[in-house]
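Q: Give me the 3D complex with S-adenosylmethionine.
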Amino acid sequence: MFESIKKLFSTNVEEPQPAVEKRVENFESAEKIFEHFKAVTGMNFNKKEEITKNKIINYCKRNGIYSFDELYQKITTSKDAMQKLIDYLTVNETFFYREIDQVELLCEIAKRSHDNFSILCAPCATGEEVYTIIISLLESGVSVHKINIVGIDINATAIEMAKEGKYSARSLNKLSESLIERYFTKKDDKFEIKNELKRMTTFMQMNVFDEKLKSIGKFDYIFSRNMFIYFNEEERRKATNAFCSLLKEHNGYMFFGHADKVEKTECLIEHHIGRTKLYLRA
Ligand SMILES: C[S@@+](CC[C@H](N)C(=O)[O-])C[C@H]1O[C@@H](n2cnc3c(N)ncnc32)[C@H](O)[C@@H]1O
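A: Here is the predicted complex, encoded as structure tokens.
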């Protein structure tokens, strides 16, 4: 009898457990992710593939994703998932007064113009280039009312930061004290662009390969700096053609970054003013 009571209260009796699927991590080849990323953004990681692969593994682990296959499935079926990966992987390095010779040339040209003019910065990252152009134009005596400026970038987080317009002291390194005082308000350890300048801008999250690009209008001046360094020849050609269709035919000027390789196309003519290189519509 004792035996049967013991059995009744025994802790050794195995309770049926719910089946838990054991997920095994598998991060071998990121090739499919790289290919899809390039097809959407135009960007390739060339010699940085190993570093980028490790970055993607970290991204997966932080987001409870167990394999590259699972990530691939997500980014090819959900726009949101793809956008998150884009925001994570694109390099938004930029700062105020970067490659300023081209902006100075723009000021010289714009000063002589009697009409209003439009400028596109594609890509604009977190907005420093757009605000650099505005500050430089205002400092050259160009009227606020003449300037219409648009910044686009594929990175949605960068665009939100551009709209917010708050920057670290490091980003403002090249600006004089008096320029900082005139155009920024210090808030804790950040410098915020004044509202008068923010109101002059339009920032949009957009891919330069998106059909929607055609709908943003025509521009007198286009800046596309330090994006082509991530593109191969085919993407550089495609993007250049897209920019051509946005550049005004009469007196339209296009500026690329110093390190950007620009393919020869029928629609742009290389031109030099002093030591500064720019492109005109053919
Ligand atoms: C290094 S930043 C350059 C920013 C600024 N033009 C400058 O020169 O300082 C490169 C930017 O290109 C953007 N980018 C990359 N591929 C893009 C695409 N297909 N469409 C729009 N922006 C893109 C990235 O998000 C990143 O912010």
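A quick observation: Residues 22-89 form one domain.
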